[in-house]
Amino acid sequence: MAAELYPAKNAPRASDTATTLQQYQRHNNSNNNASVQCCNWQGLYPTIRERNAVMFNNELMADVHFVVGPPGATQRVPGHKYVLAVGSSVFHAMFYGELAEDNDEIRIPDVEPPSFLAMLKYIYCDEIDLCADTVLATLYAAKKYIVPHLARACVTFLETSLSARNACVLLSQSCLFEEPELTQRCWEVIDAQAELALRSEGFCDIDALTLESILLRETLNAKEAVVFEAALAWAEAECQRRELRPTVENKRLALGKAIYLIRVPAMSLDDFANGVAQTGVLTLAETNDVFLWHTAARKPELPFASRPRKGLAPQRCHRFQSCAYRSNQWRYRGRCDSIQFAVDKRVFVAGFGLYGSSCGSAEYQAKIELKRQGAALGVAVIKYFSDGSSNTFPVFFDYPVQVEPDTFYTASVVLDGNELSYFGQEGMTEVQCGKVTFQFQCSSDSTNGTGVQGGQIPELIFYA
User: Fold this and answer.
1) Is 426 helix (H, G, I), strand (E, B) or coil?
2) pTM for the structure as a whole
3) What is the pLDDT of residues 289-322, one digit of tens each?
4) What average pLDDT does range 49-69 have in this prediction?
5) 138 close to 118: Cβ distance less than 8 angstroms
6) Taking the C-alpha atoms of 430, 431, 436 and 440 in order, what is their torsion angle to the nearest 10 degrees?
7) CA-angle at 382, arms to 361 and 401, nearest 5°
8) Nearest to 58 by CA among 11, 110, 120, 104
9) For the CA atoms of 175, 181, 185, 186, what is the dihedral angle to 10 degrees?
10) 229-284 pLDDT, tens per residue?
11) Across the beta sheet with 375-386, what order do the strands follow?
């Protein structure tokens, strides 16, 4: 993300300042004229912001230097005390406070050089330049030196780029940085897309406290067998961090008491017998007791929680006010029914509710798809049974699909089955569903007659 605060016309970019001063230096070296030596570069820039920008990462008039980065990977960065003190209360205390030290060189081993430069660029130039690889480290620098507007921009960037792939890592960091809104957003993603989040590479990088908080979570939408597999993968990574061989014993050691947060008895007997019991992570006594818990009339006491997780309750957005059927009105011949929709808050679309046969019970095969700007985000081919009623019948994607606000998405279905079907009527362009507002519009992909006013895809099933 590259964003600019208070943009000024023709404001110099950081890349321009070095070029400008190099030109002056070359000119000065080739001409000893005093007027050239005192070249009025300041006159080229009409605002103080632009003149300060020239000083960014520049040795000219620098009165302090920072040695940034861990030993062996440091970078020496020039600075100007006055500019830095105006941009940060920490720098002000460092240079002008009662306990100020008159050091010409300051070592900062706990901040990465690119992130430190990103912070200075904001202080000098009023420019925010963030990227996914360094935004967490930049947030750390902004928090350390109390640069609140830059910190807020980092959090906004993280919220915008939040996905199941990075939610667990960001959860760990958001707690460290005391960012409750970001923490809540992370939990929303982890709950709704739990299996994707647990299977992500980033899950193995979280700390032990974050692991425990996730394993404790009542609202995870995941099979307990997937939770166990993820915990085992984390334990193997933890063994590597501790420089231990990833044996069964060491994995159990790495998990510690967290293993009892996995709701092993809540798994199906098949999942337990063919999964957990085969890993050897549980003791023989624990394995035997879980088998007895599943099969014996007198169940043993277990150290594991036995109640299944509640997960999230799916919500349904119904876009029609009535439905009907007519002998020759709605047929399926491999053609596409499609509708576009947008939401005002991030949601996770789990699937669709579809109509079925109006001529008695029937089985359908449905290919459902969710796209954004032509790119498929979720596709599934599913069979479902229609009992001949006017009810809707749910069909689900393998994983819920994250849907961002204020962007139109295309929901499509191609049905194969009994041609005569119920269909929706009196469609609404806007539907309020809890705290989420859905807007609907016709889709050019629809070749079977579905639109805003009538047709198929009467419901969107989602988590919010």
Assistant:
1) strand
2) 0.80
3) 999 999 999 999 999 989 999 999 999 999 999 9
4) 93
5) yes
6) -50
7) 130
8) 120
9) -10
10) 999 999 999 999 999 999 999 999 999 999 999 999 999 999 999 999 999 999 99
11) 375-386, 362-372, 409-416, 336-343, 436-442, 430-433
Q: Which two tokens stand for residue 139?
A: 């947030």
The contacts of residue 458 (CB under 8 Å, 6+ apart) are 318, 319, 320, 323, 353, 354, 355, 392, 424
Q: Alpha-carbon torsion 367, 372, 374, 375, what sign? A: negative
Task: Say how far apart CA 96 and CA 201 lie, in whole Å.
Answer: 45
The distance from CA 39 to its chain's CA centroid, rounded to whole angstroms, is 50
Measured between alpha carbons, how far is 461 from 185 in angstroms, rounded to an integer?
20
For residue 185, which of 348, 311, 341 has the smallest C-alpha distance?
A: 348
The SS3 call for residue 59 is coil
CB 387 within 8 A of CB 364: no
Q: Which residues, including other chains, have CB under 8 Å from residue 70's CB and lie 6 or more apart?
A: 109, 110
CA 140 to chain centre: 18
Paired strand residues for 365? 383, 416
pLDDT in tens, 186-198: 999 999 999 999 9
Characterize the bridge pairing of strands 436-442 and 430-433. Answer: antiparallel
pLDDT at 31: 36
* pLDDT tier, 340 (very low <50, low <70, confident <90, very high otherwise): very high
Other beta carbons within 10 Å of 135: 21
**pLDDT tens for each residue of 347-390:** 999 999 999 998 889 999 999 999 999 999 999 999 999 998 99
